[in-house]
Structures are given as structure tokens and as C-alpha cells.
Design goal:
Layout (H helix, E strand, L loop, with lengths): L17 H8 L10 E5 L4 E5 L5 H11 L6 E6 L5 H4 L15 E5 L1 H9 L3 H6 L3 E5 L6 E3 L2 E7 L10 E6 L4 E5 L12 H4 L5 E5 L21 H7 L5 H4 L2 E4 L13 H8 L3 E2 L9
Parallel strand pairs: 2-3, 3-4, 4-5, 9-10, 10-11, 11-12
Antiparallel strand pairs: 1-2, 6-7, 7-8, 8-9
């Protein structure tokens, strides 16, 4: 896990309320936007899921974990066109790394968005990135890693939204950083959890009273309290698979000692942390 926060990270721009001030004043409390790296040790390949605004720091974190120069970033997989999930692509451009035909996997609308809108279109024109098409539920095989995009309902202003099933040699992870509500999906999430080893799930908001002065209807997500209630009948070994990610700056789960964090762990679930390593 290279990041666990909502798109804008923690603390968030223009937030100077007490919950943000603690992180402004103490850098060790800051969190980067949600991102996942998958490392294939046999092929010395690294795959990045999401290109966040924190991409330079996140790739450095990955380099620290596996400092062998033989390991190379082989591809990037995008979920959708909201700011915390693709804008880090800018760091592959002429003004920065100036990569050469780095494969970037995207669904049809996401691909079209990048091809037809600046500055992203320049990355394509200059061959900094090479867009690779994805299809819903169509598996992509890269070395020992198998990746399957799965469409999920979300606010799709500029592109569709997907989660990913990521299969290694022995284990499978489900990665869904953004979804509107579980009940809007044509797949029952509680039936999918037993089929995977890790379920990295949207936990943007803990409860409905977090956004002061804004209506939660503008940004629907499965509340953590809703997800825990929905999963309450899962056996303990299945609850343990659930790892909450994509935490908004208002989310009390950012504080591992908060009563809400203790409630999550007491209920048998987990909260992701930056640097968490999950064997596949």
C-alpha cells in the first residue's frame, strides 16, 4: 500500500480545523492518496494501481522497499478520472521523468479522455505513455500477475469507474477504492469477499455527519458503519479479509487510536496503513 487517503490526501488543502492541524504540524501523521503497487519478484516487475498527485513520493517509497535497480515499473492501471486517481500521470511527462511508452491501462472512456484532453494528450503524442485498452471482466496477464477490471457504479463525469481483481501465484486481492453504494452494484460484495484473500474497500467516510456545510448526496460512498453492518454476518476469517482504504481527511480511522478505529478492529475488520505488504 503506497497510500490510504482520499484523492486529496491528509491533511487536505484549505483545511485548518483541529483534525487537519495535527497533521500540518506533525509530518509523520500525513497520508498520501490511495495507491497500490504489485511486485512480481520472478520477473522483477512493478505494477502501479492509480497515478495519484503523490506519485513521486509513492514511487520513492516503492524504491525504498525494493531498491534493486533491476526492478522496473512496467505498467500503470487506472480506475477512473477523479483527481486522486490519474493526475499523477503528469510526472511521466516532458517536464519530469519523460518516460518512453510506459504502458497505462484504462477503460474505453478513460482512454478517450486522456487521448482527447490536454495536458494528458501530450503524454500520448510524445509517447511518454502508451495507452492500453481494458474491457470489463476481461483478464490481462502480465508475468505472474493477472488483472481483471470490474465496472462499479460511481460519479462518472469524465470516465467509467472500475475496481480490480488482482491475482498472484497463490492469492487474490480485490481493489475497490471508489464506489457509490454497495446496493447500487449488480454484484453482492458480501458474496465476492469469500472468493478473494484481501478485500481493499472504499471507506471514504466513517459516518454521515463528517462533511460540515456539504450534503453527502454530492459524494455518495459506502459509509464504514454501513459496510460493517452489511458484513456483520460474515464469519471471522472473512471479516479479516476486509481492509478499509481511501479515507477522507475527516475520517476518524486516520487515527489508529480513535474509538472508531477500535470499533472497526473489535468488529474483526482492518484499516490499511501505508507500507502494508500483502503477499500474493
Amino acid at each position: 500500500m503506497l497510500g490510504i487517503a482520499q484523492d486529496a490526501g491528509y491533511p487536505q488543502t484549505l483545511c485548518y480545523r483541529p483534525h487537519c492541524m495535527t497533521a500540518w504540524q506533525d509530518k509523520s501523521l500525513r497520508k498520501m492518496a490511495t495507491s497500490l503497487a504489485v511486485v512480481d519478484h520472478v520477473h522483477k516487475a512493478q505494477y502501479l494501481f492509480e497515478a495519484t498527485p503523490d506519485l513521486p513520493q509513492q514511487l520513492y517509497l516503492l524504491q525504498q522497499e525494493w531498491s534493486n535497480p533491476d526492478y522496473q515499473l512496467q505498467a500503470v492501471f487506472l480506475t477512473h478520472a477523479h483527481m486522486g486517481h490519474y493526475t499523477g500521470l503528469m510526472h511521466f511527462g516532458r517536464e519530469s521523468a519523460s518516460t518512453k511508452q510506459l504502458p497505462v491501462y484504462a477503460m474505453p472512456q478513460m482512454r478517450s479522455f486522456l487521448e482527447n484532453n490536454g495536458p494528458w494528450s501530450q503524454l500520448v503524442k510524445l509517447n511518454n505513455i502508451e495507452l492500453k485498452g481494458l474491457q470489463n471482466k476481461r483478464e490481462v496477464v502480465l508475468g505472474n500477475v493477472r488483472v481483471t477490471p470490474v465496472l462499479v457504479p460511481h460519479r462518472d463525469e469524465f470516465s467509467e469507474t472500475v475496481g480490480y481483481l488482482i491475482k498472484g501465484k497463490t492469492k487474490t486481492a480485490l481493489f475497490i477504492p471508489d464506489i457509490d453504494k454497495w446496493e447500487k452494484w449488480d454484484t453482492a460484495i458480501e458474496d465476492l469477499i469469500p472468493q478473494v484473500d484481501y478485500a481493499l474497500l472504499d471507506a471514504t467516510f466513517y459516518s454521515a455527519d463528517e462533511l460540515k456545510g456539504r450534503t453527502m448526496a454530492e459524494v455518495p460512498h459506502p459509509l464504514v458503519v454501513e459496510s460493517m453492518d452489511r458484513f456483520r454476518d460474515l464469519p471471522p476469517e472473512q471479516k479479516r479479509k476486509v481492509i478499509f482504504i481511501h479515507l477522507n481527511h475527516t475520517n476518524p480511522l486516520l487515527d489508529s487510536s480513535s474509538p472508531e478505529s477500535l470499533a472497526v478492529t473489535d468488529a474483526g475488520f482492518r484499516v490499511a496503513s501505508e507500507g502494508l505488504v500483502l503477499p500474493l
